[in-house]
Records
---
Amino acid sequence: MDFNDFTISPISIKDVQHYYLFVNENRKRIAEYFPLTTSSTTDCKKTRKFVKEKIKMRKAKAFYSFLIKDKSRVIGTIFLKNIDWKVLKSECGYFIDHEYEGKGITSKALKFITDFAFNEVGLNKLYLRIAEENIASKRVAEKNNFQLEGKLREDFKTSSGNYIDVLYFGLLKS
């Protein structure tokens, strides 16, 4: 998908170097909330293994990972995870390079993955688990018509070992 000067495409093996650079540039600010990603991409060799695993999971319909690019540079990622095929729901996660925050790109990417999840994957519900203090992510959810369904107390453990409350936003296909 193309929008403005940006594209969204499934992660591929040719993206390893660019993905590593993207995560590395944002490592300090995303490490607390994306510990698996940051610990699995500490060098290009580990990043290649991580990307191969994400491609394998896509083929198994267990995880769908997309990259947001500005020309050839990776500037963000958005993904479906924790897919429940019985209930037809999935969690969506995302993060964007600090230089591109506040420009509406993440909102457009969430719209893209919502359409993908409902129309191509066949899901009935998407949900977001957002740290209470993450005002920007809450705005992205609200712009895409996700509704606040509740607060989950101490539902996430950060990489530093702290339990935090998360806000649970949901969107139904209907």
---
Amino acid sequence: MGRKIALKKVNELDREGFVERFGGLYEHSPWVAEAAWEQRPFGSLAGMHAAFARAVQEASPGRRMALIKAHPDLAGKAAVAGALTGESAREQSSAGLDRLTPEEYEAFTRINRAYREKFGFPMIVAVRDHTKGSIISQAEARLENPRDEEIETALREIDRISQIRLYDQVEPEAEIQEDGSVEEKYKSRIVLGQNNYGKSGVRVFKVRRGSESHDIWDLNVRVVLEGDFKAAHVEGDNSRLLATDTMRNACYALAKDHLVGSIEEYGLALVDHFLEAGPTVTGCRVEITQYLWKRIEVDGQPHDHSFVRQRGERAAEVWGDESGVRKVGAGIGEVYVLKTTRSGWEGFLRERFTTLPDTDDRILATVVTAKWEYNTRRADFDRLWNGVLDQTLRTFTDHYSPSVQNTLYRTGRAVLERFPEVERIWYSLPNVHHVPYDLERFGIENGGEIFHATREPYGQIEGWVERRAGREA
């Protein structure tokens, strides 16, 4: 661990220096530091941590999941082999995870395996807040949770880990003066920094019972409130604070009359309600994930009340403040697409470590994650969401792809050209590699038929396509 750096010096770092210094706060995910750097200058250490937290909160579900999966198992094989990052090694050592008895190691191995089998990602704990015993107790309790709740828990633990790591690296801040100067003499006082609170993992399921057929909505809702919550934090005065249990109840109650069409309209109703209900609330963000169900077909006809869950998720995010500003966004999650030809990768830069050969015919496979922002709060959001998904799939098929980068831009441009209500759109397209399998060693000709499908390591291509005034760049 290097010597601590003063906050003033942090604000003077360029992007490269900042990422080099703080890229390790989030395990194998320097993109968080890159996004946080954009929010400089930081007025306080708490504000700096809030910038990192905001970068994670605003990332796509796919990117947040990749962050979770980047973490090692607790006392796993990487720890035994000495293959952990320096930060993880120090943290696991602080809880004694590098000094386990055979019985303790067996217990951790069992828990790691059970957790991964159930949730599909490693169990994450801010181990510097725990002992070996408390980690095992927490792990056993968390195995009983639903997956959605564990995703949120993992992200909270990652936030805590990053906070501990950050405070290890940066000196407690000096006072930032009104003229922007820094008083060099350290002032020994502690103040409340950026904060928010809310309710996550609210699983709202609604059935609209028509006379003949039924419709369903299957949602995971997250409510985040911002405002003047100092009295509750500093003085323990809860008298002007909405209970998170109240937030949960409101999500269900408002679904009765407001969850009748698009999830965006439902989100707008929730934002309006919480801004009015909370006397100290100045801003509200509602994030909604909708799990998609399709009617089961029987003899070629859709059944009236039987459904099968589809691959992929629909997302919406609505934000509003006390001034009346409302912003609406939407997204797509975990949509798998693949084409078996009309894709290549050639003419790329070569240097001494390059081994990949050129190809003008390869399988292109990816898992589409997208998010976009509307320039209106009044629209047919169901039509637009379905249209963006349709255009995304259409564009994937309609051209020879010289690179995933080119396909990303073509797709975003096609969406913006078709839908003037969309201001900008972001895609995350991991390259899900399909490598021709070597059958020649068995005396069998492959002929481009047999592949090994692998996801790790994989290329990750991401970017915004947006409207700009003036001539197209």
